[in-house]
Design brief:
CATH architecture of the largest domain: 3-Layer(aba) Sandwich
Strand order of the largest sheet: 2-1-6-5-8
Strand content: 15-25%
Order of helices and strands: EHEEEHEHEEHEHEEH
Helix content: 25-40%
CATH topology of the largest domain: Alpha/beta knot
Structural class: alpha/beta
Number of domains: 2
Distance between the termini: 43 Å
Radius of gyration: 22 Å
Shape: elongated
Number of helices: 6
Number of strands: 10
Bound molecules: adenine
Length: 245
């Protein structure tokens, strides 16, 4: 059965399958057409009890920005959870969440249903977060205008891991951060450099080993480049051992 995403947002149009934006193209769109993933965006405003469909208010204690109110968020979550019998893993996208890493993406890809809450404004009233007890996830140490793009990043990363979504020639195992195939220590490494035709471009040659046809040598070279790149660019990805930093 397809994994189901529900996105709760005040900008549901960002998730339209008709829009040629992120979710309407490439691998997510293909997965959706193949019936391997589905998503439904729900407008939190529809659950506002205010005649102007207001979902936010000024913060108690003063200060800039607006805070999303408990009631519309709570009612939206309750209504959306009732749309499908499968229990949903609740996720709030927030810069205060745990960092999204490939290991967490792999865990999420095993779920049947993810309910993604995309906040806007300064944040969401803490009490509704407490009561919903969602996983809080951040996609990085920077602040976006809202959780929608973060939700799309999470969805894209999850969808490409669903069995059958990627073809054999696009296997996720050889991506950066996947556990490197051929690495006895099962480390998560950055990807190696890639080359395609022509053999020579602007005086620059493709590494000779890639033209050798020797699959053993090629695999060894690629793994070495992965380790080298990771050590140079992201030493933090290695377990903190002597010689790895
Ligand atoms: N909302 C705003 N910034 C975010 C971030 N970095 N990650 C997840 N959700 C967010």
């Amino acid at each position: 059965m397809a994994i189901r995403f529900d996105i709760l947002t005040t900008f549901p149009e960002m998730f339209s399958e008709l829009s040629p934006a992120a979710m309407g193209v490439s691998i997510p769109a293909r997965a959706r057409k193949a019936g391997l993933a589905e998503w439904h965006a729900t407008d939190i405003r529809s659950y506002s009890k205010d005649k102007h469909r207001k979902t936010d208010e000024r913060p108690f204690g003063g200060g800039p920005g607006m805070v999303m109110m408990c009631q519309p968020v709570w009612d939206a979550v309750m209504a959306v959870e009732g749309l499908d019998a499968r229990p949903a893993t609740r996720i709030l996208l927030t810069p205060q969440g745990v960092p999204l890493k490939q290991g967490l993406v792999e865990e999420l890809a095993k779920k049947e249903r993810l309910l993604l809450i995309a906040g806007h404004y300064e944040g969401i009233d803490e009490r509704v977060i407490q009561k919903l007890a969602p996983m809080e996830i951040s996609i990085g140490d920077y602040v976006l205008s809202g959780g929608e793009l973060a939700a799309m990043v999470l969805m894209d990363a999850v969808i490409r891991l669903i069995p059958g979504v990627l073809g054999d020639d696009e296997s996720a195992g050889s991506d950066s951060f996947g556990v490197a195939s051929g690495d006895r220590e099962g480390r998560r490494l950055l990807d190696c450099p890639h080359y395609t035709r022509p053999r020579e471009w602007e005086g620059m040659e493709v590494p000779e080993v890639l033209m050798s046809g020797d699959h053993g040598r090629i695999a060894k070279w690629r793994l070495e480049r992965m380790v080298e790149r990771t050590r140079e660019r992201r030493p933090d990805l290695f377990p903190n051992k002597e010689g790895e930093k």
